[in-house]
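fyi for ur records
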Amino acid sequence: MLQMELSPTFHNEVGVPIVRIGCREFKCIGDKPPQDHPHIYLKMGDASEIVCPYCSTLFRFDPSLGAHEADPADCAYGDRD
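which gave:
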C-alpha cells in the first residue's frame, strides 16, 4: 500500500496523444481535480507503453526521464493525495 502512495502521478489535461514518462508503474488521474477520473494504478511490466482504460491516454516509457517526470512536463502531477 505504501508503494502505491509514493507512485508517480500523471494526467493529460492538455490532451496530447502520447505522454512520455520515466517510470513503468504509476497512477493516472486523467485530468487535474476536480475533473479527474477514478485514480488508476498502471503497470507496464516489460512493455514500453500502456493505454489508460479510462482516458485512453497512451503512456510511453522514456528512460531519459526521471521517475516523476513527463514530456510534456505539465503532465506530471506534483500534488500527492
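Helices lie at 2-5. thats all i got for now
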